[in-house]
Amino acid sequence: MKAIMTVIGADRVGIVANVSCLLADMSVNILDISQTIMEGIFTMTILVDTATSPHSFDEISAALSAKGEESGLSIRIQRRDLFTAMHRI
Q1: How many C-beta atoms surround the C-beta of residue 45 within 10 A?
Q2: For residue range 11-44, what is the model confidence (pLDDT) as tens digits?
């Protein structure tokens, strides 16, 4: 299943590495990634595929939330179909 992730927080070294390592450890594939820094605030949007992960979507979401709390970031994941439906004009 494809999903959209967002990562937001104060910019610092290692954010991309920490998030991508967690995804790799859970066998979640990164399909596309975009990031920017706006006045010291790091923002990243990632399209991922969870199809090959042995973990449920809820387990992946919980692990990302825990990583965010641990590192002072807001890390969220939404199923792509839900994300698309919510942002349709």
Answers
A1: 14
A2: 999 999 999 999 999 999 999 999 999 999 999 9
